[in-house]
Write a structure and sequence with these properties.
By secondary structure, the chain is an all-alpha fold. The protein has four helices and no strands. It has one domain. The chain is elongated and about 40 Å long.
Length: 75
């Protein structure tokens, strides 16, 4: 069995991490990786900034569409 790329794993956890929808062990895993990986830390900061921008700037219609798309992506 080959070991997974830790950045790939972090990418999978990033949205649930931002949504505060991870188990405590997964939060710890994500935070450990973000503490040691400048690339993933930049991605995290970008996603956080994007969420703030949308929350402040987006129209209600856009917010509803984004929520709908996130629901579809979640399964």
């Amino acid at each position: 069995m080959t070991e997974r790329d830790p950045c790939e794993r972090c990418e999978e956890m990033l949205q649930p991490y931002l949504d505060r929808d991870l188990e405590p062990a997964e939060v710890a895993e994500a935070e450990r990786h973000l503490d040691g990986c400048a690339y993933c830390r930049r991605r995290y900061r970008f996603e956080l900034s994007l969420r703030r921008y949308i929350r402040i700037s987006a129209t209600e219609g856009l917010k509803a569409k984004l929520a709908e798309l996130r629901g579809l992506a979640g399964g």
